[in-house]
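Case study 2.
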Amino acid sequence: MKQLFASITVLLAMGAAEAAGVDHPAAASLREVARSADKAWNERDANAMAAHYGDAATASIGTTYLSGKPALLEYFTNSFGKLPAGMTHRTEVRRIEQIGDLVAADTAVFLEVPDAETGRRTVREFFTVTLLRQAGKGWEFVAVRSAPVGK
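Prediction:
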């Protein structure tokens, strides 16, 4: 899996995904998955958030590494209880690349809070690479690697 992520990172860094860009045939459904995950996060619904992941999925969020849906559910349950009121999660799908039967999505994730002057203010940004596979009529996260940008 580490080699696969290294290959994906190189492809994305080199711009190989530019050709597929967001014109990938699954782009609309992958954007819907992102909106659904944002909704679950914004509603602080740990069960709905964990439901986006496959049973054996892994995630690296900052320095936290998680493996399996039970660990992800526990993580979201704990972290959602600590979030400040009004903080929201917004995902932008930037690039999509087909890799065998998986799809790699390069996204930007923004944590935002209410701001009197601008409406919303970004307090944290993450660069995220997500591997997804089709599951039934939808998609499930196989692996998520999310690294903070800046700070």
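Residues 3-20 have pLDDT under 50 and may be disordered.
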